[in-house]
Design goal:
single chain; mainly alpha; 13 helices; 0% strand; globular; disordered N terminus
């Protein structure tokens, strides 16, 4: 009877345990590298890129261009984010919002992240160069360089205008998608670029209000850290208004009534949320900045879905 539970089970257990731990380690490494690419940001970038592609093409673009821009854009966004994590690893350790990222958590090494980010950047630019055109390729390479060198290394740590100037690379996917289809960028493409550019200020200012202490601890001069609440409120309202104005300016440039009605309704809600945040700040109650942050994402998503729908009609 003792032979039933003797060596057969215990002799295999160490090997089973080692294989299980190996699979867990590989899964953890995969999750760490995936986290470095900041998938949520990449997803949001693609939400604006695909409708721009469709509008430039007058409907569905050819599948090769669509696939290349989606894959190349995702890789470019992932590259920029991974290199951003490499550059910001010192301040990420100081901020509660970012201290669980792979580098502060020591899940991966800085050298590995640098190689990973540069590899993604090279592949993304190469894909665009081979399958699209010189303008889309140059814009892709420029966006990666701008985000990591101009914004992350320089502007982010030196000026409260970092969000404004950093908005250039955040809005770049719109014109990259347009350029990939046509080889140029039409006025309508620039109008949609302006929408995303201005949108980033209320979006990121709301986040910076929420994590104001984090940014102060890391020595990052985000606007809510170095300016008064009144100044922050003014800029939130100003850039929300400019976002809505830019969205309405795009309407007569080649978009239909579905887009126009959507821009009016969603723009009114976006402005309403901005004024609500300002009003709560003035009354000294709970500010709830993440309401504006989350609504801004909803606004941009719905607006660009309307762009896609109009492109198909």
């Amino acid at each position: 009877m003792s032979m039933i539970t003797e060596r057969p089970i215990t002799s295999r257990a160490p090997g089973v345990k080692e294989r299980t731990e190996t699979r867990r380690d590989r899964a953890a490494v995969f999750r760490a590298y995936l986290a470095l690419t900041k998938p949520q940001i990449v997803e949001l970038l693609l939400v604006t890129t695909v409708p721009a592609l469709m509008l430039a093409a007058g409907g569905w673009p050819d599948l090769r261009t669509l696939a290349v821009v989606l894959i190349g854009g995702a890789l470019a966004g992932g590259a920029a984010s991974a290199l951003n994590c490499y550059i910001d690893r010192d301040i990420d350790e100081l901020m509660r919002r970012t201290k669980r990222r792979p580098l502060p958590a020591h899940s991966v090494t800085p050298r590995a992240v640098l190689i990973f980010g540069l590899t993604l950047a090279v592949i993304s630019v190469a894909l665009m160069a081979v399958f699209t055109n010189w303008l889309a390729t140059a814009l892709t390479a420029g966006a990666i360089f701008y985000y990591d060198v101009i914004y992350t290394l320089w502007l982010k740590r030196r000026t409260p205008a970092n969000t404004f100037w950093g908005g250039v690379c955040g809005a770049a996917p719109v014109i990259i998608g347009w350029a990939a289809v046509t080889g140029t960028v039409a006025p309508l493409g620039w109008a949609l670029f302006a929408v995303v550019f201005f949108w980033q200020m209320p979006h990121f200012y709301a986040l910076a209000i929420k994590y104001k202490d984090d940014y102060a601890r890391a020595g990052i001069p985000m606007l809510p850290v170095v300016r008064s609440a009144g100044r922050v409120n003014f800029e939130i309202v100003l850039y929300t208004v400019l976002t809505v104005v830019a969205s309405l300016a795009a309407w007569p440039l080649g978009l239909g009534p579905i887009y126009g009605i959507t821009a009016i309704i969603t723009g009114a809600f976006f402005l309403g949320e901005a004024f609500l945040l300002v009003n709560r700040t003035r009354k000294g109650g709970p500010i709830k900045p993440m309401r504006l942050f989350h609504w801004s994402i909803t606004y941009l998503t719905i607006l660009f879905i309307a762009v896609a729908v109009d492109a198909l009609i």
